[in-house]
Structures are given as C-alpha cells and as structure tokens.
Amino acid sequence: MTIETILFVAHTEEDGSLGRAALECLTGAVELHRQIAGASLVAGVIGVDATAAAVAISGCGASKLFAVSGPEFAMSRYASDTAALDSICRTSGATIIVAPATSRFNRAVPGAAQRIGGKIDTHVGGFLVNGAEVTIQRGYYRQRMIATLTRAARPWFVTIDAGLFPKFEGAAANTPVESLTVATSDAFNRTKVVGYRAPEADAQTIRPDANLLFVAGVGWTKKQADGQVHLTEAADIILGFLDKSKASLGSSKSLVDQSTEGHNVFSFMSHLNQVGQTGATPRHAKGLSACCHGEEPHVVGWRFIGERRAINLDANCGWAQGKTDVLYIADAFALVKKVGELL
Ligand SMILES: Cc1cc2nc3c(=O)[nH]c(=O)nc-3n(C[C@H](O)[C@H](O)[C@H](O)COP(=O)(O)OP(=O)(O)OC[C@H]3O[C@@H](n4cnc5c(N)ncnc54)[C@H](O)[C@@H]3O)c2cc1C
What we know:
Layout (H helix, E strand, L loop, with lengths): L4 E7 L8 H16 L4 E8 L2 H7 L7 E6 L8 H15 L3 E5 L2 H14 L2 E12 L2 E8 L4 E5 L6 E5 L16 E3 L32 E5 L14 H15 L2 E4 L1 H5 L26 E7 L5 H4 L5 E8 L13 E4 L2 H11 L1
Parallel strand pairs: 1-2, 1-4, 2-3, 3-9, 4-8, 5-8, 10-11, 10-12, 12-13, 13-14
Antiparallel strand pairs: 5-6, 6-7
The chain binds flavin-adenine dinucleotide.
C-alpha cells in the first residue's frame, strides 16, 4: 500500500497573494489529506515572493512548505513554471500533486507531469476516498457524463476546477518555509507577459465569479401581448438587472443564433453566453432563467447551478417538468423590471 504524500501546489497572483481558485483547491487538498489513511500533506508556492504566500497558508496542516521565489516566477511562462514545479515535486517526494486548474497551471502542470514521468488528470470535479484508495470524478462530453476513475501510477497529478470547495481560511502556523533554488535558463527570456487585454468590467457580461447566473431566452425577442416586439425595452431591462445584480449573463442557443440569421438581437451577448449541450456549463450558486423554454439540450448546461428559478408565461414550459426549484408563471418584462427597480 502506498503511503501517500499529497502536495498542494499553487502560483501567486499579481498582488502576491493566492487567488480564489488556489485557495479553493487548498481546501480540497486539506480534505483529501484528512480522508486518506496515513497520508501526509506538504505545500509549495511559486511567485515573486512565494515565501510570504506560503506563510499565509501555513495553517493548512502541511508538514513542509516550499517556495520558489523571484521576479522570473512572477508571470505565467511555461519554461519557468515547469522548472519550478519540477523542483517542488521532486524535493517533496509527492505521490499525489493537487493543483488549481487556472489558465497558468493548465499549461504548465501537464508539462511537469511529463518531465517527472507522472500521470495527470485535468479538470477534476471531485474525489472520493475509501480508506487509502482515492477515486476522482471528471466530466466528459461537455459534462454530460461523469466518470469515476483511479490510478495506480505515481506521481499522480490532478488539477481541480474552481467552484468545488470553499476558499481556505486559517491562521498562519509556525511551519518554516524552505526556499528552493531553480536554475534559470535562456528559455525564461523567450516569453514575456506584456499585459492583459480584457473588456471593461461593465462590458463583460460573463462573470464566472458571480453568485447568480441570469439566463435570457428567445422570449425577449418575441411578440408580446400587444402584438409588438420590444427589443429596446428588453435590452434595457436585461442590462438594468445585470447592472444592479452583478449577475453573469447566459443565453439559450436560439437567442444567440438569431444574430447569425440576420435578426436584430442584443449586441451585449454572443455565442460565448450560450448555456447548454453545445454551449457552456457554468458554475454558480443560483440561476434565474427568463423567457427561455427550458428544453433539455439547454437545461443540461445547468448541471452545476445550485438553486434554479425560471420565469415563463407558459405553465407547461420545460422548466415545469421538474427542472427548476421555483417556476414563476409571469411576464418576465414586468417581473425583471420590477426586481431591477427594487434592487
Ligand atoms: C443537438 C442540439 C443541441 C442543442 N444545444 C443547445 C444548447 O447548447 N443551448 C440551448 O439553449 N439550446 C440548445 N439546443 C436548442 C434547444 O433545444 C432549444 O431549441 C432552445 O434552448 C430554445 O431556446 P429558448 O428557450 O430561448 O426559445 P423558445 O423555445 O422559443 O422559448 C421562448 C420562451 O419564452 C417564453 N416567453 C415569451 N415571452 C415571455 C414573457 N413576456 N415572459 C416570460 N416568458 C416569455 C415562451 O413562453 C417560451 O417558453 C440544442 C438543440 C439540439 C437539437
């Protein structure tokens, strides 16, 4: 039986602290440590001043803490990140390496696994422990199938998706941090992050960190009781609600498809907002759908939405077939406008 050494490994963010995904992943690693019989926990951090970030999480129960620090480890770069990961993994003697599935680590961790001769499972969505046996869960085919699998090979790398665990919180302990020296190479100079390009916060309607997902369907563009379409009013109501609630905006496929068919639709949404079988499966604590029918190919995308509510004029819509917790039979124009005003 392998006595597991679990290594939690993370990189710092621009401000030097560990980001949300890393702290959530740490909770997962701590939980894994608690559940696997006889396992030990160690942690490693990469960043400009990784020691400070390692001290900040020293209350996690790790028996050893490692840091790879320096300006060359500030930015996301495959060469420097894999070299740092390689050093931490080998020094720690880890058998299971748990890392957050951030865009930076999604590139580097598989490379480190390859260098060390380990195996990797990415985008892990949960785990189960039975004594010393660990099984992980992972979605396939756009999360429509969940596989439960285990591996005998070590070291075993797993990258954990965000949104699965609460953020780790704990007072610092006295565990000393061991600084590791990683030899720099010419490859470190080949790639530089020169900046970020992102839409203005207000222009960004997809907000993965939002508590609420607000999903708009094609009903917003349909003729209403007065026999007219009300696109401008619909856009104002949707944007007004998003502004007040800071919700993330989702869409049904039919609504975003309309733009490719030459109809007038909303400039603030694109296919990136589409939720469903051929769209995204976002993770949010709550979801509110308005003017969307709730058909199965759409609703499969709600797999990771905690509490579901929908507004529809039709009491026989798809949502009524057990797909929401609460269904409001109401005019979404009036209801969402009113909620926006109340907010
Ligand atoms: C292979 C395949 C893959 C697919 N993948 C996806 C996918 O990834 N995502 C996806 O969304 N769809 C997908 N679809 C399409 C899906 O089956 C539906 O056609 C689509 O989700 C319907 O969009 P909708 O609910 O916005 O529009 P509709 O079905 O037209 O529903 C509009 C709803 O608005 C309601 N409404 C109208 N006015 C109001 C009002 N004033 N107040 C309240 N309610 C109102 C109506 O009662 C109606 O229920 C897929 C289909 C197939 C075959």
